[in-house]
Amino acid sequence: MPTGVIINAASVLLGGLLGGFLGDKFSEQFKNDITLIFGVCSMGMGIYSIAPMKYMPAVIFALVIGTGIGLWMHLGQWINKGAVEMQKPISKLFPNSKTEMSHEDFVNTLVTVIVLFCASGTGIYGSLDNGMTGDTTILISKSVLDFFTAAIFACNLGYVVSIIAIPQFILFYILFLLARFIFPLTTPNMILDFKACGGFLMLATGFRMVKLKMFPIADMIPAMVIIMPLSWIWANWFLPLL
């Protein structure tokens, strides 16, 4: 059962409904301060995942090469374009009712939220981890953050935020299913390095949430694909030579 995936999608759905109902009852200071806490929690989850790392050179190499691949492919730009296309039918069903927001601000903010929930390194890492190991810790922890984050964004965007739970569930469930085919080919050390690589993405996500440094999270995603092969190569090809 994709328990973590279901809980994560449900948290966005319920958070979006709650925020849409409450509207502008939260102050701007409250929204800004609580977002900082979300960022710190994401950083803490990242550090926790990095700590058991087995082969640091493999993880660092995966991050550098993977991000290079993402930048070369303009992966972040493609994800942003996909988010723009995704929001068009959603915004027609749920037009912006917040008169203080311009249409351009509404669209830009909605695109940001779609990318945050559907293409975050934490969600991708958590879905793969749930499918490979059955561990729902990352996705459940992320769900707590997503619930409140969705509620805060929905205060400005309205109920449209809750609809993002649908494409989020579809994407994460596909990753969950693919992970089952990957797991038999892995070793415990490869899993530890995979978690560590995801931890770095979560740490970078935290920096973005507190607006300290805007790391190219979407472009870093290919690192999650190549980390386990690189971990195996390091353990079997390079370590015997050292």
Question: Which structural traits does this protein have?
Answer:
single chain, 242 residues, mainly alpha, 12 helices, 81% helix, 0% strand, elongated
Can you walk me through this structure?
α3 crosses α10 and α5 packs antiparallel against α7. By secondary structure, this protein is an all-alpha fold. The protein contains twelve helices and no strands. The longest helix has 23 residues.
Structure summary:
This is DUF554 domain-containing protein. The chain crosses the membrane at residues 6-22, 34-51, 57-79, 106-128, 148-178, 221-239. The chain is built from 12 helices and no strands.
Number of strands: 0
Low-confidence stretches: none
Tally the helices. Answer: 12
Termini separation (Å)? 43 Å
**Structural class, from secondary structure content?**
mainly alpha
Radius of gyration over all CA atoms, rounded: 18 Å
Largest sheet: none
What is the helix/strand order?
HHHHHHHHHHHH
Count of the domains: 1
**Anisotropy-based shape:** elongated
Beta-strand percent range? under 5%
> What is the helix fraction of residues, given as a range?
over 70%
Mean pLDDT level:
84
Keywords: Membrane, Transmembrane, Transmembrane helix
Transmembrane segments: 6-22, 34-51, 57-79, 106-128, 148-178, 221-239
Protein name: DUF554 domain-containing protein
InterPro entries: DUF554 (IPR007563)
